[in-house]
Amino acid sequence: MESTIGDSAILAPETSLDPTDWQDFQSLCESELSALISHLSGATDRVAWRAVPEDVKRSLAEPLPMEPQGPRQACESIRKNILPWTLGNTHPRFFGWVHGSGTPGGMLAEMYAAAINANLGGREHAPVYVERTVIDWCRQIFSFPDSASGLLLSGTSMANLVALAVARQHHAPIDIREEGVAALPQPMIAYTSAEAHCSVAKAMETLGLGRRNLRRIATNQNLQIDLDSLRQTIKTDRARGLLPFCVIGSAGTVNSAAIDDLAALANLCEQEQLWFHVDGAFGALAMLSEIEQPKLRGIERADSLAFDFHKWMHVPYDAGCLLVRDGEKHRQAFNTQANYLAEGLAASAGAPWYCEFGPELSRGFRALKVWFTIKEHGLRRLGRKIGDNCRQARYLAQQIESSPSLELLAPVQLNIVCFRYKPPGFPTSQLDRLNIELVAAIQSSGVAVPSSTRINERVAVRVNLTNHRTRKEDLLEFLNAALRLGPSVAERVLASDSGAPM
Ligand SMILES: *Cc1c(COP(=O)(O)O)cnc(C)c1O
Question: Where does the record place the modification N6-(pyridoxal phosphate)lysine (predicted)?
Answer without folding.
Answer: 311
